[in-house]
């Protein structure tokens, strides 16, 4: 069995390539948060308390569009519902741990750490294999907090003309690259995108994110059911 | 609601989505059907953020003509499909966007 430190370091090394897009993402978040009217302290608190790039950007996007708090919170919940899946998947590797470890590890259960540790956890049966997830998550934590901080400071220095906010949809687009190859996923993507765009002005309380996501999931449910009968 | 309350609630709900399954789940509660549908969650949610950010302009209207974001996003999508690289997707999209607004 490898030492805890070695597994932790392996997590850091494995997650590193995935950290490259996190840097501009964090910077953009810091810049945008100030731009839509949050104070530097509130912005930093968002990264520390929420610690989720997608959720924080959704928060900003809806906040700047004047959405109500209830819609913002439920949209953040909807965007985060993918964590339920991550948790379900890794839970079998963490089932022997003490509650305190589960509480700590949950904080680090983010896209990138899950992506790399899921592979590692499947291949390794060592009792301390969860240190890999902590290593990946902690790495992302450091990058996310420091780039948020830099974004807050650099905010004013980055010209608006660069259109850096366009990096937000691009980042989400990049998270879907593997799904563009799957037929049902493409249909779900188009349905969700159309509902969100067409409903943007008509669905009350800016709830278009949730309505579109539910429409997409419903489509997936129907299409996968047909698939099975055929 | 104050900004601070908003941040705290968003943080709480984010944490709960991460913690709840780790804390509560028994393996048998997750059947293949639920797992299959949950695997579509990213495809169902992210487009709801991507599409309006590309197609809706600053004043809330759908903008198709003279919108360099559409072409840039399409280029990024194809680079993403072929490279399967998150980094290449983001940078090709930004580079095409800058090319379209500054050069063309």
How far is the first residue's CA from the last residue's CA of chain B?
45 Å
Average the pLDDT over all residues of chain B and give the rounded result.
Answer: 89
Would you count the extended β strands of chain B for me?
A: 0
Distance between the termini of chain A: 47 Å
| Sequence of secondary-structure elements of chain B | HHHHH
Strand % of chain A is: under 5%
| Strand count of chain A | 0
Main sheet makeup of chain B? none
What is the tally of helical segments of chain B? 5
Fraction of residues in H or I helices of chain A: over 70%
Low-confidence stretches of chain B: none
How many domains comprise the coordinates of chain A?
2
Strand content of chain B: under 5%
Structural class of chain A: mainly alpha
**Biggest sheet statistics of chain A:** none
Please estimate the helix content of chain B: over 70%
| Biggest interface, chains and residue tallies | A-B, 92 and 67 residues
**Structural class of the secondary structure composition of chain B?**
mainly alpha
Shape of chain A: globular
Separate helix tally of chain A:
12
Order of helices and strands of chain A: HHHHHHHHHHHH
Brief synopsis:
The complex is a heterodimer of chains A (230) and B (104). Chain A has 230 residues and is mainly α.
Notable traits:
heterodimer; A: 230 residues; mainly alpha; B: 104 residues; 5 helices
Task: Provide an overview of this structure.
- The complex is a heterodimer of chains A (230) and B (104).
- Chain A is mainly alpha-helical.
- Chain A folds into two domains: 4-164, no CATH class; 176-229, no CATH class.
- Chain A contains twelve helices and no strands.
- In chain A, helix 1 packs across helix 8 and helix 6 (82-94) runs parallel beside helix 8.
- Chain A is globular, with a radius of gyration of 19 Å.
- The N and C termini of chain A lie far apart (47 Å).
- The model of chain A has no long low-confidence stretch (mean pLDDT 88).
- With 104 residues, chain B is mostly helical.
- Chain B has five helices and no strands.
- Chain B folds into two domains: 1-30; 42-103, no CATH class.
- Chain B has helices at 3-24, 32-38, 41-55, 68-83, 86-103.
- In chain B, 75% of the residues lie in helices and 0% in strands.
- The interface between A and B is large, with 92 and 67 residues.
